[in-house]
Amino acid sequence: MRARLLTLTATVAMVAAIAPAPLLAQDAPKPATIAVDGAPPVPMAVVDATRPYMEYRTAAFLDWNPATRGMLISTRFASVPQLHTVAGPGMARQQISFEAEPLAGWYAPNDGTLVVRKDKGGDEFFQLYTLKNGRLTLLTDGKSRNEFNAFSHDGQWIAYSSTRRNGVDSDLYVVNPRDPASNRLAAQVKGGGWSVAGFTPDGKSAVVREYVSIQKSNLWWLDIASGKLTPIGDHAKPIAYAAADIASDGTLWVTSDEGSDYQRLGTLDPRTGKFTPRAPEARGDVEEFSIAVDGSFIAYAVNETGISKLRLLDPKTGAVRDVTALPAGVISTLKVAPWGTIGLTLSSAKVPADAFAVDPKTLAATRWTTSETGGLDPAANVDPELVQVKSFDGETVTGFLYRPDPAKFPGKRPLIVNIHGGPEGQTTPGFKGRANYLINELGIAVFYPNVRGSSGFGKRFVGLDNGPFRREDSVKDIGPLLDRLQSDPAIDPARMAVTGGSYGGYMCYASAIRYGDRLKAADCIVAISNFVTFLENTQGYRRDLRRAEYGDERDPKQRAQLTAISPLTSVDRLTIPLMVVTGANDPRVPKSEADQMVAAVRAKGRPAWHIVGLNEGHGFAKKENADYQFWSEIGFWKANLLGGK
After folding, report:
1. Which helix (H) or strand (E) holds 541?
2. How far apart are CA 417 and CA 421, in angstroms?
3. Calpha distance 203→222 (Å, rounded)
4. Beta-ladder partners of 385
5. What are residue 244's DSSP bridge partners?
6. Beta-ladder partners of 580
7. Contact 309, 317 (CB under 8 A)
8. How far apart are the C-alpha atoms of 177 and 113, rounded to whole Å?
9. Exposed site from 131, 446, 449, 536, fewest CB < 10 Å?
10. Number of alpha helices (DSSP H) and beta strands (DSSP E) in the chain
């Protein structure tokens, strides 16, 4: 016994010597799924100060349950969002999935069979399952990348796309989700952008969308039995169909930019390809639509300078009604229930993405979920102001500026420019989550630009950065925006920084290089550092889709230009402090893009913080990882933007 006590005493002393108590008390524990290289520990004081902002939730509407008339939503109570059901407005969220990864889900319109999608560690090699009584039954091969496409009208079949044949082409499959053995190939295709948009009412045919680029997509008519694909319209025309579906009367409805700078809702004759706009919008894309089962109306959302407007179209009369009862915000996942109620997700600066329903007769809106915001009052969040400037060539570019409360933070404020990805994405004034801490508690202004190439401003604008020879024009847009912001009397021109993710990560690197004399630091997330190595190493199923946007590295002239504009080529000019965030399983922008940039910066004798999510993909999805990333970023901003405060 005495020997055991002596051994225990010696062990305690050794542990105390290795890990002094003050260090353990002052620093936050790092998740085992995070690798940190070159960044300091996170002080526990930062964790304590930010805690309410880390605990906000969102509730995304996914579908209507045909059996219960309740909602299926996605919300997070632990590490990642899971599926929950809500029986009625304001009622309890009942969790029905308990997985280690986030899920999406869809109900069969007949018997409510639930089909779900899940990947592994953010690798985006999604598998499809049915979910019942907390158990998953695999429908796909367990190896390839699979995407849910659509249910047949009678709910007996689902269509999905899969790369199982060769890892590159997204062939089309159908399966009865109640019988995995019914799985069969419906059409073999070439390319990674194929999906079934909707079935005909009899289930014998379907409309298929082939995505080529944001400015070009083709529609096909698929005979399910034979696999024959017949082109709809003239595929030589530069037309983009953003969405398509078939009504219960067999009418093919689409959103198309044919004859317009914007996506319009209309009908398409599958025999002639003639598009007839039915809900022409003067300025703004129709981004989503859903057809009532009885055909009495079509609900659709229009993007008007980043704000969604919900409208209902009567297909028989052409009359359009505006839904004005919803809060001003951003609408997504729009779907009409079999009994007619409209479900949707809405987010704004003051609404952290919640599920709403709209009565198609009265147009009354009902909020079904009220997500927690860590005890904070979301009404206290600031609404952004729209900033517009003329760029270097006279093109108008815009962005949303979130200012700290001047009463709480008087004087000139530091600012972070946060650039969206895509590049065809768009910054909209939705809920900003953790970023509200920067604005509300640290007094940092945050600006979200929409440079050329952003969606939501028409097909001309979205194509202004296409290819390697116009790519840097989007970077040049940042200059006039910085001019405007630096002249703002409430912004400190000596304390400005940049961040961004994915393509926004490339913009982050490129802005740090081009405008390094005007910026204090750069936090670049899942970022492209070299366009050639990015295109060579991104997953095969998406390589041609990215070539359509960035250029073809196999062409010598384009390869030379892609190399010339790559941040890695100009790393000598990247002299401001750098933070890099990476997902180890990222299928889009591989981790090697971050590794080579970090190595190059350090080879020049300059430091770079590097945070890696070992179980993450294209952005951090697990709460514990996203929290630690944010805490590290606070340390980075305090050290390099706030003067160590």
Report:
1. helix 540-550
2. 13
3. 11
4. 401
5. 254
6. 524, 610
7. no
8. 8
9. 536
10. 12, 37
